[in-house]
TrEMBL record:
It comes from the Eukaryota. This is RNase H type-1 domain-containing protein. Residues 25-54 form the RNase H type-1 domain. Gene3D superfamilies: Ribonuclease H-like superfamily/Ribonuclease H. It comes from Apostasia shenzhenica. GO terms for molecular function: nucleic acid binding; RNA-DNA hybrid ribonuclease activity.
Length: 90
């Protein structure tokens, strides 16, 4: 939720995230409409499970093309839930 507050703030951000927020704000101008909101753990199980996975991984893993099966399966399951509940957002 802190990232949302940073994005919505119109003051110059002098934090370490300031340059990235500036780029993000510039890129968002390309859209006629957009909505940035917090999605709880229940609304984004893939991100939650990946974060938990990262806590227990001792080495760095980078997936560029062929994602791990567990990521593919989690993403597919979450997409099906979103489609069934009409919550799919683009």
């Amino acid at each position: 939720m802190e990232a949302i507050k940073m994005f919505q703030d119109t003051d110059v951000d002098m934090s370490i995230f300031g340059p990235r927020m500036k780029v993000l704000k510039e890129r968002m101008k390309a859209f006629d409409q957009y909505k940035i909101s917090h999605i709880g753990r229940d609304g984004n199980q893939v991100a939650h499970n990946l974060a938990r996975y990262a806590l227990h991984t001792t080495s760095q893993i980078i997936w560029l093309e062929n994602f791990s099966k567990f990521i593919t399966n989690m993403t597919r399951e979450e997409a099906i839930i979103c489609i069934e509940s009409n919550e799919l957002v683009f």
